Each structure stands twice: as structure tokens, then as C-alpha cells.
Description:
Layout: H1 6-37, H2 41-76, H3 78-83, H4 87-118, H5 123-131, H6 136-167, H7 170-181, H8 184-197
Helix pairs in contact: 1-2, 1-6, 2-4, 4-5, 4-6
Amino acid sequence: MSQRNTVMRSLHDIGLAAWFGGSLMGAVGLNGATRNAVKEPVLASRIASAGWAAWAPANAAAVTAHLVGGAGLLGANSARVAYQRGVGASTLAKTVLTGAALAATAYSRALGKKIELASSPDPEDRGAAADHPVELEQAQRHLAMLQWAVPALTAGVLVLNALHGEQQRPEEQRQGMLRRAASPRAMAGGTRLAAVRRPAPSVTGRC
């Protein structure tokens, strides 16, 4: 419980911060400024798509760092996940939110790439977009919703990350272990284990 995991924690936290901050800045700053400054829808889509395309490699690196750090922390804290009450539930919730954020990020990028090709001035790009037709307005509506889904989901992961930090306090760990040990399921398991280990009574006969 007392060992340090500085590298894994740094990868986890920095990656999550960049993932959340980049998605929020893109929704508020890039998309918002583009809509306000450019009145031509196709040109606005082209500019916004170029900005998101430039951010995509950094975002992919941030997500990868977060996942690597998260896997390392999960391995280091596997005993707490198994034996400290409440940690398993919060870890499961964090995993679900992370998966949803990954799906939303991947879908957003796929839609953004299609919009980028459809709005490109390059005839070859428009030809590639024709091979995978997309309704530009429909894709933009989907992105308008997803642009808030990603920061909302990653914000949820940040909240659960803060909860995990609180659960690592020594007093929280002690109480969590005691509550888990005193739970009916744990007590029933201990009773069954004691019954299995109890030696059979010896039988002696008289000669």
C-alpha cells in the first residue's frame, strides 16, 4: 500500500488532463470561434477540421499515456480493489466512463475525418469522400453533440480519480478493509473456510 508509483501516476494524470483539456478547449475555443468568425458553413468546417486534425496526434498520445498509467496503477492497487470496500465499484465505474470516452473520441475523429475530406478544396479528397458518402449537415449535428460528450465523460473520470485519491488515505483504507471483512458475504466465506479446515473428530474404540 505504501509503495510509490510516480511514473504510472504521472502518465495517468497528465494524459487525462490533456484529454479533458484538449476536448474542452476544442469545443469552446476552436469550434466556437470558427462558428462566430466564419459564416460560410463549408469553410468553417474546413478550418475546424484542420484544427482537430492538428490536435489528433497529441490527443492520441495523451489517451495512450492515460491508459498505460491506468493499467499500471490498477496492477499496483489490485489488492485494494479486491479487499477494500468501495474501491472495486469506483474502479468499475471509472472503467466504464473511460470506455465511453474512448468510443466518443474515436467516433468524433471518424466523423471529423469525413467532414475534412468532404469540405476539402482538393478534388482528390472530395473523391475519397465520395467513396464514403456522408451528409455534411448530419455529421455536423452529431459532432455538435459529441463535442460536449467527450469533456463531460473525461470530467467524470477526473471526479472518480479524485475519489480514488481519497480512498487511498490510511484511515479510508483501514475502514474499507474492516467493512469488507465484516460484510455478510465475507463472514459467510470465512465460516465455510473454517468448516473445511476444521479437523474431523477422532474416533477411538475400546479393546
